[in-house]
C-alpha cells in the first residue's frame, strides 16, 4: 500500500498549535520529537502538520458535512452500522472474534450461563477462539482444572477454534496446542484488517498490528459477548505516532514503543487509540508491528493500530480464507495529538524498575547487576525476537554469566528456534547458538514466567531478583 494512502499529507488535528522540534531530556535518546499540543481556545484556522494552513470549511446549508474519521473510528462505525462516529460516543459494536484463555475463560463461561441460562448457546461458535496458554505445564490441580473447564465448555458449545492440550509431559504430542494466545491468534489467521477482536487479556491490543480494532475486556463483558455477540464501547480519540528513518543496528520495535511510552508516560494514552505510521513502521515485519501494538496497554491505550499494507496481506495469504476489508484514516481525520520521531537517531533502550516509562539508554545501564535473563512472552517470545537474541550472542562470542531462560511463544516459534538458520552464523540455528552460549534449553511454549502463576511455573521468580 502506498504511503500516501496510509499517511495522508493533509491530516487535521483537534489541537491547533505545533511545537517545533525539541530535544529530549539528557537521560533520553538523542531523537527529535514533534507534538501538537492542546490549546485552550480553538483558532478559526485548522493547522496541518504536513501541509500549509487551510481555512476551516463552512457548514453546508443543505445538510451536515461528513467529518473525516481515523482508522479506529471507521472500524467501530462499520461494526456498529453507523455512517459516522466521533470520539466519546457510546455504540453497540458487533464483534468479529472473541478470544479467551485458561485464566479468564472459566469466569467468562460462568457469567454467560448465569445471565443467558444454563442451557444457552453462544452467539456464534465459529467466532470464539479459546486458547489455553498461561498456567499450563504445572502440577497445580486448580490450574489444570481451568483447562478442563475450557475443554468441557468447548465440547458443549461445539466451539470450532479450541486449541486443546491434554498431554502436559510432551507439548509436541498435542497437535492442537499452540501456545501464547496473542501470537497464536495471528499465526492461525484470526487477525484480519478492518475487524473487531476482543479478548480477555490486556495484551489483546497486539492484533492491532493487522489494521483491526483489538482490545482487552473483562470476564463480565466477555460473558455478555458470548451470548450477544456485541458490546457497548466508547469511541476513543486517536493519538498519531509518525516514525521515519532507517532502524539502526540492534534497535527493534521494542525500543520504538519504549521510546513512545517514555515520551508520553504510562498514562499518556489512557482510553485513547494509538495509530502508528511512517516509513519506519512500513519497513517493519508483522512480528515487529505486533510488538509495537502489544505494549500500547503499558501507556494506558485502548488499542493500537497499524495501517494494513502489502506486508500485512502477504502474511495473511496462507493463514485465512475469510474475506476482509481494510480501512485507512481519512485525509481530513481529526487527531488529539501527533508525535514525530526520527528513528535513525534512536539507540537501544531499557525500561528500568519500576515502570515501563522509566526509560533509559541501554548503555547507561551497563553496570547494573542482573540475576537472570528471561526471553519469552507475547512481547518477546516470537521467532524474530529469538533471532535478535542469537545475533547478540554471536556478536559477543561469550558464554552467559547468569541463568538465561528461553520460552518460545508457540509451537511454531519453538520449531523455528530449532530449524531456521541464523543469517551470518555459519549455518547455525538459534538453539545451537543458545546452547553454545550456555543458555537453558528452550522450554515448552507458554506465557511461562510472564504472569507468575503456580510456584512450579518454569522460570518463575520465587524470590526477589533483578531479571
TrEMBL record:
One of its GO terms (biological process) is oxoacid metabolic process. This is Aconitase/3-isopropylmalate dehydratase large subunit alpha/beta/alpha domain-containing protein. Residues 74-359, 363-456 form the Aconitase/3-isopropylmalate dehydratase large subunit alpha/beta/alpha domain. One of its GO terms (molecular function) is 3-isopropylmalate dehydratase activity. PANTHER family: 3-ISOPROPYLMALATE DEHYDRATASE, HOMOACONITASE, MITOCHONDRIAL-RELATED. InterPro entries: Acnase/IPM_dHydase_lsu_aba_1/3, Acoase/IPM_deHydtase_lsu_aba, Aconitase_4Fe-4S_dom, IPM_dehydratase_rel_enz, IPMI_cat. Keywords: 4Fe-4S, Iron, Iron-sulfur, Lyase, Metal-binding. It comes from the Eukaryota. Residues 47-66 are annotated as: Disordered. It holds the Pfam family Aconitase.
